[in-house]
Amino acid sequence: MAQADRTESVEGQGTEATASLDAPYSTLESRWHQMFPTLTGDEVERMRHFGTPQRWQAGEQLFSVGQVGRGMCVVVSGCIQIIRRDGLGHEHRITDLGPGMFSAEVGTLTGRPSLVDGRAVTDSEGFAIPPDRLRALLVAEADLGERIMRALILRRVGLIESGSGPVLVGHGAEPLLLALQAFLRRNGHPYTVIDMDVERDCSCLSEFANAPASDFPLVICPDGRVLRAPDEGQLASCLGLLPEFDPAHVYDVVVVGAGPAGLATAVYAASEGLSVAVIDCRSPGGQAGASARIENYLGFPTGISGQALAGRAFVQALKFGAHIAIPLEVKALHCGSDPIRLELADGRMISTHTVVIATGAQYRRPAIDALERFEGRGVYYWASPVEAKLCKNEPVMLVGGGNSAGQAAVFLATHAAHVHMLVRGQGLAATMSRYLVDRIGGLPNVQLHTRAEIHALEGDGWLSDVRYQAPTESDGLVSLPVRHLFLFIGADPNASWLRTCNVETDDKGFVRTGGGTLGCASAVPYPLQTSVPGVFAIGDVRSGSTKRVAAAVGEGASVVAQIHNYLAGLTTAAQAA
Question: How far is CA 3 from CA 7, 65, 86, 192, 492, in A?
C-alpha cells in the first residue's frame, strides 16, 4: 500500500499489528492479489442477491472516512477509487476497483465507520451489500466467503502498516501516549504517531506549538476534531467504536469479557443461531493477549502470539454476527428474574436471558512503596512492541514465574540489553512449561534471580533503580539501575461487579460453579453455572479452572451447550405457565 508521510513510529508495530489479525507476514506486496481480488462473473452473480443495485456518477462520493454502516460496494462496470486519509488531511490513493472488485474491510462486517474514502472515477454500476447481508454471504457461500474474508483482513492489516487513521501527537515516553497506542494496537485499529521530541520542525504541528503541556498527547481524529489528553473512552467515541444497544432487545446470552474463553463462547453461540453480545472494557485477548508467543497451543507448531489468536477469534465472532462492544464496562449485574439485566458504567441497561462471566484475572499489584507513581513511567503489566521500543538496548527487570512471564522474558530478550528475571521460588520448573524453562536457560542475556523480592523503587519522575532482596546473592538489599520493570505476578479475579447479584465466590474471590439446575424435575445440572440460575462462569475467573488458553476455549464451547439446555428449560417453563 502507498506509504503515509509518517508511518507508525514504534518499532515492531507493523509486525505485531499484522499478527493480531492474520499470520505474521513480513510484507503485503506479494499478497496484493488476495487483498484486492477480481471475482469471476459467476462469483459476482452469486453475491448479487445479497445486495441492492446501485449507480454512481463520475466524481460521486460512495463513502467517506468516519461514515457509518454503508457496507460493501461491488463494482459491475466502471471504476471506483479507494483513498486513504489521515487526521491531518493527507490523502493517498490505495487502488482502483474495476469490474468484479469490491470495497470493504473487517470493520464493514459490523457497520463500523469507514477508514477510507471511496469515489467514482467514471460513471459506474454495481450493488451494495449492507453489513448484516455481508455476514450472511460469508456464511452461505463458504469458498467465496473465505476469499472475501481474507481480503477484508489483509486490507485492515495494510491500513495498520501504512499508519492511517487518527494521529497521536506527543512526547514519545509519556504514559498517556503509550496507553493510547496500546489501546489502539490491541484493538487492531490503524493510527499514526508524531513524536514531538523527534519531529520538532514538523510544519503540521505549528498550530500546537504554544499549547500547554496538559493538552498532550493530542489526538487528531480522521474527521479533523482534536482531542486534548483524552482517555480511552473519549478516543473510542471519536473513532465511532462505541456500539449502540437496542434497549428493547433481549439477548440469548451476554458474555462479559473478550479473552479466549469469552470469544470462544461468542463464536460457538453465534454460529449456532443464538443472539450474542460480548462486552469488554479494554480489548480482545484478555491476559492471554500479553503472551508474546504461545507455542504449546494445539494446531500451531510454530507458535502464535496471544494477540494474534485473539484477533482471529474476534473476526470469527464478527463473521457469525456476535455484537462485540469494546470498550464498555459493566458496572453491576441485576439478577433474580428473567431477563437478567446488566448495568453499564455509562448508565445503560442490557437485557439477556443468560450471562457468561468470562472476565478472567489481572496481574496483582504488589505492595511496593511508590509503585503507583511509576506505573506507565517505567513499570508495566504488559510486554508489547510499544514497551520493547522503549527498553531497546537497555537492561530491564521482569518479575514472575508463570508462562506469561516466561513468554515476556523471551520476547524482551530480543530487544533489551539484559533481562533480570526475579522469582520468589527456587526456580521456574514448578510454575512454567518445560519448553519455556529450557529456552530461557539458553538465552545469554537473561539472568534468573531466585528467592528474590522487590523492596523499593527509586527515580525522579521515571524509574531509575530497583532495590530487591535475594538471599542467594546478598544478605542485604541489592540495587540495580533499571528504567523498565515488568510485573507478571499472580492473578486476582475480575469479579467485583458481581456483588449486586450475590454470585458465590471462593475465599480468593474466584467464582464458584456447579451450583444448581433450572429448578424443575427434568432439569439437568450445569457444571459451569454459578449459584445464580442463568449466570455461568468460565475461564480464569472460575474457581478451580485450569489456567491455560486451551482450557478456557474448551469451557467457552462447553458453556454454549449448557446455555442451549437452560434456554430450552425457560421455554418449557413459560409454556407450562
Answer: 7, 18, 12, 12, 43
Q: What is the pTM of this model?
A: 0.87
Is the CATH number of domain 371-487 3.50.50.60? yes
Using CB atoms within 10 A of its CB, is residue 574 exposed (0-12), middle (13-18) or buried (19+)?
Answer: exposed
Strands 492-493 and 418-422: what pairing? unpaired
Give the span between the Cα atoms of 430 and 436, in whole angstroms: 12
| Phi and psi angles of residue 319, each rounded to the nearest 5 degrees, phi first | -55, -40
Sorted by where each begins, the domain ranges of the chain are 13-162, 167-237, 250-363+491-576, 371-487
Closest CA to 1 of 65, 92, 64: 92
Domain 250-363+491-576: give its CATH code: 3.50.50.60
* Chain segment 319-340, per-residue pLDDT in tens: 999 999 999 999 999 998 889 9
Contact 414, 498 (CB under 8 A): no
The three-state secondary structure class of 385 is helix
Contact call for residues 97 and 75 (beta carbons, < 8 A)? yes
Res. 452: pLDDT tops 90: yes
The CATH class that applies to domain 13-162 reads: mainly beta
